[in-house]
Amino acid sequence: MTSRAVQFSRFGGPEVLELVERENPQPGPGQVRVAVRAASVNPADWKVRSGAFARTDAPDHPVVPGFDVAGVVEAVGSGVTTPGVGDEVLGGASGGAYAEKAVADASAVVAKPASMSWEVAGSLGVIVSTTYRVLALLDLRPGATLVVHGASGGVGMIAAQVAASRGVTVIGTASGSHQDDVRSLGVTPVVYGEGLVERVHAITDHVDAVFDTSGKGSLADLVEIAGSADRVITIAHPDAGEHGVRFSGGGTGDPEIEGALAEAAGKIAAGFWRAPAVTTYPLEQAAQAQEDNRTGAVSGKLVLTP
Ligand SMILES: NC(=O)c1ccc[n+]([C@@H]2O[C@H](COP(=O)([O-])OP(=O)(O)OC[C@H]3O[C@@H](n4cnc5c(N)ncnc54)[C@H](OP(=O)(O)O)[C@@H]3O)[C@@H](O)[C@H]2O)c1
């Protein structure tokens, strides 16, 4: 049986993405195949596509982008007892989610709450797992003060709310037009850019840590706000090494991830936390969706709905 997928066979701009008909991927041991209902675009998707993370000129096989998936399990590999065929799940895909059919490790997906839309479900994997990983590294106690740099973004919104729910006081940076969005998360908003240090100091004279979710702006400012480089973690800033700041990259083996997804999905479905706004695109418009995410033309989560 065949189904459609978006893939690229050489690194480059959005034009390298092509919609193809391919053999359905088969779940290996410990994996499930999902009939995809939603798959979100993350900045990592177009960074990988551009070759930014590559050591060679071309990928050694066609690459299907997409780390986040939500859909219905339609086949299970050996050793999988849960989820089962027919279950609605959300989480992380292995081998690409921009497709009608995607494979995921059974341990990387959790039950989709019945009341949650497919679009929201398909946008949670990366932003939730990244949030929980970095907050575990920062190890903040209730009463601590955290600056989330980029609190209007996908990771930043979730990070601000998870930290606040743990009794942490959160100050969130965003552009001028997103100050109200950040405030509505129960977070003190502040405009990023020149003068940020002074604006934060006008709010508080002590910050315990900074979580840089945006990777933009002055890292020196964030270090000054935190008081020392070891109290700053970035997930995206290219100058991390130069400033002695920890860079936390994504990957497998994060023990928090499974519990994180179930907790965050439950809190969002129950209305305690807000998920980023979602804009949907058909699979045919994957290139446009990546460009809109890269340029910031559309904010919130951009989600492909095959
Ligand atoms: N290492 C990892 O594990 C990992 C995991 C996930 C994501 N990431 C990376 O983290 C970054 C953010 O991902 P995301 O999905 O949250 O992106 P996103 O939803 O596009 O959010 C980007 C955030 O950056 C803010 N921003 C834009 N221009 C800025 C500037 N000049 N100074 C400060 N902040 C600025 C935006 O604020 P406004 O919208 O208000 O302008 C927004 O809050 C990406 O680079 C992504 O590749 C890394």
Q: What does this protein structure show overall?
A:
There is one protein chain. With 306 residues, the chain is α/β, with parallel strands linked by helices. The chain folds into two domains: 2-124 and 275-304, Medium-chain alcohol dehydrogenases, catalytic domain (Quinone Oxidoreductase, Chain A, domain 1, Alpha-Beta Complex), CATH 3.90.180.10; 127-247, Rossmann fold (3-Layer(aba) Sandwich). It has ten helices and 15 strands. The strands form three sheets. Strands 3, 4, 5, 6, 7, 14 and 15 form a seven-stranded mixed beta sheet that branches. It has a six-stranded parallel beta sheet with strand order 10-9-8-11-12-13, sandwiched between helices. The chain has a two-stranded antiparallel sheet with strand order 1-2. Helix 3 crosses helix 4 (154-165) and helix 6 packs parallel to helix 7 (219-226). The mean pLDDT is 95. Residues 42-44, 47, 126, 130, 150, 152-156, 174-175, 178, 192, 213-217, 235-236, 248-250, 299 line the site of NADP nicotinamide-adenine-dinucleotide phosphate. This is NADP-dependent oxidoreductase. It is an enzyme of class 1 (oxidoreductase). InterPro entries: ADH-like_C, ADH-like_N, ER, GroES-like_sf, NAD(P)-bd_dom_sf, Zinc-ADH_QOR/CCCR. Its EC number is 1.-.-.-.
